[in-house]
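Proteins fold. Shown next:

***
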Amino acid sequence: MLFIANGTLYPMAEGMPEKIENGSIAVQDGKILKIGNGFTYEDICRDYGRTEQEKKADTYIDAGGNWVMPGIIEAHCHMGITEEKKGMEGDDCNETVNPITPHLRAIDAINSMDAAFDDALRAGITSAMIGPGSSNVVGGQFAFVKTKGSRIDDLIVLAPDAMIVAFGENPNVNYSGQGKSPSTRMAIAAMLREELTKAVDYQKKREKGGETFEKDFRYEAWIPVLEKKIPLKAHVHRVDDIFTAIRIAKEFDLEMTLDHCSEGHMIAEEIHQSDFPAIVGPDLASRNKIEVQNMAFKTAGILHAHGVKVAITTDHPVSLIASLPICAGLAVKAGLPLMEGLKAITINAAQICKVDDRVGSLEEGKDGDIVIFDGNPMEVFTNTLMTVIGGEVVYRNKLS
């Protein structure tokens, strides 16, 4: 058992107080057993009949009044696929020879030994949504994973967790340079519609079944999308690309997240009406493309004010993974309410990634992913004192 006492808890959970002073958390078998105040380690041991032998293996942590939060979540990145320090040899982000590759799986390319995973732990980031890049119209399947461990199979929370589709400059630049489609935004939309139409036809044939039905590996990848088990993850920056993504998702009755959403503040009410959430960022990056000329930290706050559910992303390695809490802080500085900034990197990110049954808040029954900070993590001088994943301490700052 892990027991954290004397913490200032920020549960990020609906129906719970925003802040709990002198709070405690008990974690057993990787899950939160109890959270709140008014109980001690001794109370837990008595109530759950823990033996002296079991107590010897327990970990007791006095949080010293510091901030205790759910583990931070990165909702869109390429950590371990585009590896740091390795250049071309460590870049598996884009299969840039075919614009339609739905059957690619992130888990087959994520190197959990990438240095970025250690940086994530030091920043209090306990899980991340990782997947292919945006050079293809359809890039493949994202996976939601924990950030500590050597074998990717052991880190998976949900895979597949989304299907990446890309609009705008990236597919156009890549394939027009090869002398083939897409070279325009019209072609991107047409190719995606064509692929989705084929996927729907395949689904209908699949449902009829029969002994003669032969599965197609490429179109099997679309089934969880068509069944609304996972969303399209739309790479969109510009207003027109956002509208095209919404148009196509509505045509095929699909769930979708609007990733990057750099000009989302210009059409905030229309995005709200679409009922699609936004994963905003990376705003801590240069405006090095035409389609990101209006990128700004104010986007998250304006979208929130219009009722859009918002998460924040670094898009690592575009911005480094460890800057995620600071990116949320800069969004707060630009107008996002403070608690919404914290939610954007915890419970909102978990809900958007469809893993809020396990992570994103401190609630009984959820994974024991917990971080202790010596202040608000969105402030630049704040230290991560301790990072816990599944009830195990995976990072401890020398200050603690």
In short: The CA atoms of residues 284 and 380 lie 14 Å apart. The first strand starts at residue 2 and ends at 9. The radius of gyration is 22 Å.
